[in-house]
Each structure stands twice: as C-alpha cells, then as structure tokens.
Amino acid sequence: MVSVGTMVWLTSELMFFAGLFAMFFTLRSTQGEMWAVYSQELDILLAGIITVILVASSFTAQFGVFAAERHQPRRTGGMLSVKSWGMVEWYILSFILGAIFIAGQSYEFAVLVSHGVSIQANAFGSAFYITTGFHGLHVIGGLFAFLYVIARAYFSVKFSAREAHAAVVVSYYWHFVDVVWIALFGIVYILPLLV
C-alpha cells in the first residue's frame, strides 16, 4: 500500500514540476533576449559535475535497495570491501553525494546573486531560482529520508521486510528527484546553448 501511495504522490509531484517547466518555457518565450543574456551567467561545468554526482547517487541508492532486498542492513566485510556493503553503507554514500549536489547548487546560487542574478531581479532569475530551488528542496527532503531509513536500520532489533520496503520506497523518491534534475539540466543549462 505504501508503494502505491508513493507512486500516486510522485505523480502529483510530476504535475507540480510540469507546471514549473511550463512557467519556465512561457517566460523564456516572452523574454527571449533576457534569456540569451542571463543564460550566459550559468556555470554549465559546475552544473554538469553536480549532475553526474546526483546521477551517481541514484546508482548507489539502487545498490542499497539490492542490499535491503537481501535483508543485509550493514556490511559483512571490511569497509573497503564494497561488495560486502549493506543498505546502510550505500545509503550513507547516497546521502553524501546528495549533500555534495546541494552544496554545489548553493555555491552556484551564491555566485549568481553576486553577479546580480537574483530571484527578484527579473523573469529569468525568478524562473531559474523557483525551478531549481524547488528541486533542491526535494533533494533535501530525500536526504532526510535517507537518514530516516539509516536510523531505522540501526535501531531495529531485526531488519525485516518493513525496513527493506522503506528503503525501496525512498529509492523511488530519489530516482524521481534525479530524473527531474536531468530534465531541468537539459532545459535550463543545455537548451540555451542549442537555441
């Protein structure tokens, strides 16, 4: 039941981001010159690096799911023996990668604001910060979800199907957040280079 509820909720989140994309495209189509000027302020290299990091975190989260499905909450070997990692180690790594993504995004926001591109400056700033900012908030929510699942694994007497299922549901959310970012990266950073 939790999986179905999560899928329904993620569908509503998809509609939310579709609305944000519509706003972005509408403002871009009516403010073309402004978009051309301010798009040059974006740090495509940094955005590309944090995109790779976020996508990598989706893979590490999936490895955590595989471990959870094997009912292996923690590593069975040495810390450097990645093959022996359990769900906790993979989810800690996913958390770290997600935190690096947020740090990179925060750094880019700070640089853009120092260059005069703020949320209240113009339509570009509003569209950029609203779309990427809401995504960032979703990533932060995912980081808290990772911490919840990790804590649940540590404090449970026996790692059961309930704990494994919680890990799987969190992975659904994390994969969703990653796919939304890939779309955002393409629309916000790559599309201006092509058009």
UniProtKB/TrEMBL annotation:
Heme-copper oxidase subunit III family profile domain sequence ranges: 1-193
Q: Please give the GO cellular component terms listed in this UniProt entry.
A: plasma membrane
Bilayer-crossing regions:
7-25, 45-67, 88-107, 127-151, 172-194
Q: Does the keyword Cell membrane apply?
A: yes
The topology of this chain with respect to the membrane is:
Multi-pass membrane protein
Enzyme category, top tier:
translocase
Q: Which domain of life is it from?
A: Bacteria
Provide this UniProt record's keywords sorted from A to Z: Cell membrane, Membrane, Translocase, Transmembrane, Transmembrane helix
Cite the EC number. 7.1.1.9
User: What SUPFAM superfamilies does the record tag this protein with?
Assistant: Cytochrome c oxidase subunit III-like
Q: Which GO terms describe its molecular function?
A: cytochrome-c oxidase activity
Where can this protein be found? Cell membrane
Reactions listed under catalytic activity: 4 Fe(II)-[cytochrome c] + O2 + 8 H(+)(in) = 4 Fe(III)-[cytochrome c] + 2 H2O + 4 H(+)(out)
In Gene Ontology terms, what is a biological process of this protein?
A: aerobic electron transport chain
Q: Does the keyword Transmembrane apply?
A: yes
Q: Give the family this protein belongs to, as stated in its UniProt record.
A: Belongs to the cytochrome c oxidase subunit 3 family.
From the Swiss-Prot or TrEMBL record, give the protein name. Answer: cytochrome-c oxidase
